[in-house]
Amino acid sequence: MSSKIEIDHRAARHPEKANRPDNPIQRKPDWIRVKAPTSSTYHETRQLMRDNKLHTVCEEASCPNIGECWTKRHATMMIMGDTCTRACSFCNVRTGMPNALDADEPGRVADAVAKMGLRHVVITSVDRDDLPDGGGAHFAAVIRAIRAAAPGTTIEVLTPDFLRKPGGLEAVVAARPDVFNHNLETVPRLYPAIRPGARFYQSLRLLDQAKRLDPSIFTKSGLMVGLGEERMEISQVMDDLRIAEVDFLTIGQYLQPTVKHAAVAKFVTPEEFQDYATMARAKGFLLVSSSPLTRSSYHADSDFAALREARAKAGR
To answer: With left for phi above 0 and alpha for psi between -120 and 50, is residue 96 left, alpha or beta?
Structure first.
């Protein structure tokens, strides 16, 4: 009964998905289950987000790693509101018409980063197709505010695709984040069903342009598996990313948030994730994170340190 109430509650937050057919949520295998968060630090992190009126993708996207990350005071902050202009079938973020940008948000984000004493922070956002630059200038303002409040913190951004939004990418790169991340999410064949508002080659071109605009910035992208993709399709996407000189690839299991979202086609085994990691390393990525619970910002602080070490060894 309780799970039904939770499903109905989530569906109420996403009326735009109400006309989608129900896809029963499959029972997760043992290797993908996580414990419910209970630590005091978890609750302190949550309260800090509420006090600063901030959104996190950890909560909005129902990330399975929230207990572990928030206990370590790691949180991925989601700027520009909690309402997205896209309705991707894998994502649990609310869809609709967002509110106007909050000019005070960069300062509140920076204040939270400073109070948490973060060595590395990840800033992401909803898609803002309603804005002329897709929110690029707002990303830049957040980066500058963090630099001023917490100069020792390294900054990773996970941006939208800025589709048909001239100047958005350029504004973000000019603000000099340490890592520029944009997730391809899945293989081109599945885009119409999984990312209907996006274009695979626009996302790929965005990553290529970011590296060309500032070769010193680490570039990063992520894939979900278990949506019906084939192994050779993943291999081809890896090749595409390497042509765009992407440094870091993350691969994780897709988990269905509600019955209104895309169904899981397969729970990929830990052994298969290791096979993907071996394949990606052979193709030349500086760093690869591939496991059932891998997410874009999971262990982002230690991964950034590993990225810098790998670049130094490779001489790139």
So the answer is: left
Q: Are strands 55-56 and 76-79 parallel, antiparallel or unpaired?
A: antiparallel
- Angle between the N-to-C axes of helices 40-51 and 105-116, in degrees from 0 to 180, rounded to the nearest 10: 160
Is the backbone of residue 89 left (phi > 0), alpha (psi -120 to 50) or beta? Answer: alpha
Amino acid present at 140: A
Supply 307's token pair.
């990225």
Instruction: Provide CB contacts within 8 A for 207, sequence distance 6+.
Output: 180, 182, 219, 221, 241, 244, 246
Residues 234-283 pLDDT 10s? 999 999 999 999 999 999 999 998 899 999 999 999 999 999 999 999 99
> Is residue 229 a contact partner of residue 303, using CB atoms and an 8 Å limit?
no
**Cα(69)–Cα(141) distance, integer angstroms:** 25
Predicted local distance difference test score (pLDDT) of residue 37: 61
Q: Tokens 């869809």 sit at which residue?
A: 95
Domains of the chain and CATH, by start: 35-314 (3.20.20.70)
Contact 296, 249 (CB under 8 A): no
**Band of the pLDDT at 93, cuts 50, 70, 90?**
confident
Question: pLDDT, tens digit, for every residue of 29-65?
Answer: 888 876 656 667 666 766 776 777 766 655 655 566 5
Residue 248, SS3 per DSSP? strand
Alpha helix segments (H runs only) across the chain: 2-13, 40-51, 57-60, 66-71, 105-116, 136-149, 168-174, 191-194, 200-213, 231-243, 270-282, 300-314
Q: Which of 17-26, 53-62, 112-121 has the lowest mean pLDDT?
A: 53-62
Q: State the Cα–Cα distance between residues 20 and 194, nearest whole angstrom.
A: 13
> Does residue 18 sit in helix, strand or coil?
coil
Query: What CA–CA distance (Å, rounded) separates 219 from 207?
Result: 7
